[in-house]
Amino acid sequence: MDEPTHIPVLVTEVLTHLVERPEQKEMQARGASFIDGTVGQGGHAEAILRALPGCRILGFDRDSANLDIARRRLERFDAAAILVQDSYANVTQHARANGFEQVDGILLDLGFSSAHIDDPERGFSFAHEGPLDMRYDRTGDLTAEAILNGWSVEDLSRIFRVYGEEAAALQIAKVVYAARKKVRITTTTQFADLVETVVRRRGKTHPATKVFQALRIAVNDELGQFERVLPDLVDLLRPGGRLAIISFHSLEDRIAKHYFSERNGETLNVITKRPVGPSDEEVHSNPRSRSAKLRVAEKI
């Protein structure tokens, strides 16, 4: 995978809130700094670096393949782009080590890369048969296969219900438990077929969509890392610095909304009273952007 395959969402809206502000000239004069906690293949980072010449950006991603693409994409910016293979959960230590203690803007794009969806070997999709992996960082120990074949009915039901908001969570967990006693569940299509014995197909949405989301979240501890890191991100902002969060499902958006609302008027000023979505033109050109929501808050 040599070229970017993931189309970044809400780029115009991100630039509007993080860069194109009344203090843009002052930011450029002093050499503004940004953190992209989910740099992926570098789309948002490239847009920020182009929009504000002289700024610096510290980018994180757990996926080495994505980072290789991002490095090539951003190499023309030389030392202005510093990329780290790690989770944004460890942002504080890397920010301090690289001189990003007080930054002008932080972006988290919580959607997962199209490259992950489209690569059967990563196991994120039931569209093609592949191993039940779902790790962003492929050096990690926990896989979707390990969860499905090792966790209890109660724990499987819990993640399907909480992370997937799946009404048939318990029934699916019981079917998985019964099936794995006969043969190990190892492929995406094998698991998806099991789900279809419980949940009927309605319209275009595949019955396994919600539980695949749940497994991905559990494998990568997505919600836990997101919730724990929010105070650290705010601490890294300079007064007037902005935190922008792009979410793609209600679980993430609810966490961001609640955190911003609780601190509104105290440590933060909420900039987006309602989440910002993609334009009709963007949805037309990139249908995967349809569910994207952007929330922005400014540090007081």
Structure, explained:
This protein has 14 helices and 7 strands. By secondary structure, the chain is of the alpha/beta class. The protein has 2 domains: 11-114 and 222-299, 3-Layer(aba) Sandwich (Rossmann fold), CATH 3.40.50.150; 120-220, DNA polymerase, domain 1 (Orthogonal Bundle), CATH 1.10.150. A 7-stranded mixed β-sheet has the order 3-2-1-4-5-7-6, sandwiched between helices. Helix 1 (11-18) packs across helix 3 (43-51), helix 8 (153-162) runs antiparallel to helix 9 and helix 8 packs across helix 11. It is elongated and about 65 Å long. The model has no long low-confidence stretch (mean pLDDT 94).
Structural class by secondary-structure content: alpha/beta
Give, in spatial order, the strands making up the sheet with the most strands: 3-2-1-4-5-7-6
How many beta-strand segments? 7
The separation of the N and C termini measures 42 Å
Report the biggest beta sheet as strand number plus sense, adding barrel if it closes.
7 strands, mixed
CATH H-level homologous superfamily name of the largest domain: Vaccinia Virus protein VP39
Count of the separate structural domains = 2
What is the CATH architecture term of the largest domain? 3-Layer(aba) Sandwich
Shape: elongated
Mean pLDDT figure: 94
Low-confidence stretches: none
Q: Beta-strand percentage? A: 5-15%
Bin the helical content. 40-55%
Radius of gyration: 20 Å
SS element count, helices: 14
